[in-house]
Write a structure and sequence with these properties.
The complex is a heterodimer of chains A (about 120) and B (about 110). Chain A has strands at about 5, 10-15, 20-25, 30-40, 45-50, 55-60, 65-75, 75-80, 90-100, 105-110, 110-115. Chain A is mostly beta strands and about 120 residues long. In chain A, strands 2, 4, 5, 6, 9, 10 and 11 form a 7-stranded mixed beta sheet that branches. Chain A is globular. The N and C termini of chain A lie far apart (about 35 Å). Chain B is mainly beta and about 110 residues long. Chain B contains no helices and 11 strands. In chain B, strands 2, 4, 5, 9, 10 and 11 form a 6-stranded mixed beta sheet that branches. The chains are: A mainly beta (about 120), B mainly beta (about 110). The interface of A and B includes residues 49 and 109 of A.
Amino acid sequence: GAVVSQHPSRVICKSGTSVKIECRSLDFQATTMFWYRQFPKQSLMLMATSNEGSKATYEQGVEKDKFLINHASLTLSTLTVTSAHPEDSSFYICSARDRAGGGYEQYFGPGTRLTVT
Amino acid sequence: SQQGEEDPQALSIQEGENATMNCSYKTSINNLQWYRQNSGRGLVHLILIRSNEREKHSGRLRVTLDTSKKSSSLLITASRAADTASYFCATGGGGFKTIFGAGTRLFVKA
């Protein structure tokens, strides 16, 4: 099946610094990628939808200036958490929709655990 | 905002028993998907059922969809300890966004 990778898998950073998380579709082209955040023992909350070559669409309540999303190519989207604070500590998961076929199925990355100290 | 509500929130069964999880949603959908997540790990796609389908099988999994009641169920037959995980339903609709339900934590005792 299609593979989506995320890098890094874990990151610890100090409060006030910025962290970039990469999401790559390895064997398919993804016109659309999604970014989710998951707090412990909770569900995945959609943060934003990212389309290649255009601005991301953010969900209500998600600060676009804090969570910068760039979808520069059909295989790469990045999420940058700017001026991170401890409350940003979470599990961030990306997913990608295959350009080919019906396009309904999403393929999820393994997630990135961010800890802000 | 979250679309789906799942019940039960947690389920504990013995190995060999069947596990049934339910999901309800609020708006019209194109499809509904079920995912599995082991603790602290990424998601594994289990099965997708389209809005014009009523039932789908995949191995020990059986999914039903009732669009009139805006609900779906996931049945895992002959459960195994390795099935212990969180299970989420997710709905796909207009704009192709996939919205997740709250999830059911399944614990299968050996």
